[in-house]
Amino acid sequence: MSYAYGKCFDPTGARHGIPTFPWRCAPDGYATSRQLRARNLRPGGQQVAAQVLRPRYRRGPLVAYLYRIDQAKPVRPMTPGKRRALECAMLAAGAVAASAALAIVIGVRLSGYGVPVSLLLACCLSCVATFCSLLFRVIGAWSTTTHRCTRPGCDFRVSLTHTGSAENRRWQEIAARHPHRTH
User: Fold this and answer.
1) CA distance 12 to 122
2) Measured distance CA(117)–CA(111) in Å, rounded
3) Total domain count, the chain
4) What is the pLDDT of residues 38-73, one digit of tens each?
5) Helical segments of 20-164, H only
6) Are residues 150 and 137 in the same domain?
7) Which of 10, 18, 11, 76 has its CA nearest to residue 43?
8) Which of these, 181, 163, 179, lies nearest to 171 by C-alpha position?
9) Are 103 and 125 spatial neighbours (Cβ–Cβ below 8 Å)?
10) What's the CA gap between 51 and 38, in Å, rounded?
11) Full-model pTM
């Protein structure tokens, strides 16, 4: 047994406080959170059951925490609201990256004309801010539901964002039976 291997092997937890194993030598029945996720499981609130250490030269060891597979719970299903929020977040992250790339392209083009760096920076930042603002407005409009009165000439409407189906249905009924007024 090598010296590095011996420092990482502590199955009783006497040295490290929890059972510790060398890299790639964990016993069956334990998995990292990524390995649990690959099996459609999650730790489910359980404490870390063990750890795996990988020694490194002149630095501290890499640590991977292990959870018991038999105590893991199934992954919660993706709800439509979570899916919509995740899509919006991914769209926003992509938009920020696209706007940054656009700002860099504009900055590179303007730098060829001898524009001062401070002016280039201001121009690039305003491009990023404008594009992100526009995108967040589009995302907000995409996630907004508007209920209008069905009576011709009535301008009653309600705009809702991030509401559940029950709240959405309640406002739809309110829009249908409100006192009709025209201007």
Assistant:
1) 60
2) 8
3) 3
4) 999 999 889 999 999 888 888 888 899 999 999 999
5) 33-38, 80-111, 117-142
6) no
7) 76
8) 163
9) yes
10) 19
11) 0.51
Q: Please, are residues 19 and 51 in contact by the beta-carbon 8 Å criterion?
A: yes
Q: Which of 62, 50, 46 is closest to 20 using CA atoms?
A: 50
**C-alpha span between 59 and 15 (Å, rounded):** 19
Domain of residue 89, residue span? 80-142
13: left (phi over 0), alpha (psi -120 to 50) or beta: left
Is 100 within a domain? yes
Which DSSP helix (H) or strand (E) runs through 30? strand 30-31
Using the 3D structure, point to which of 44, 74, 104 is the last residue of a domain.
Answer: 74
In this structure, are strands 50-56 and 20-22 parallel, antiparallel, or unpaired? parallel
C-alpha dist (Å) from residue 94 to 37, 70, 133, 134, 135: 25, 38, 13, 13, 10
Determine the 3-state secondary structure of 49 from DSSP.
coil
Q: Are residues 12 and 53 in the same domain?
A: yes
How far is the C-alpha of 3 from the C-alpha of 54, rounded, in Å?
Answer: 12
Measure CA 153 to chain center: 44
Structure tokens at 67: 């959870």
| Tens-place pLDDT, residues 125-155 | 887 888 778 877 877 777 777 777 777 777 7
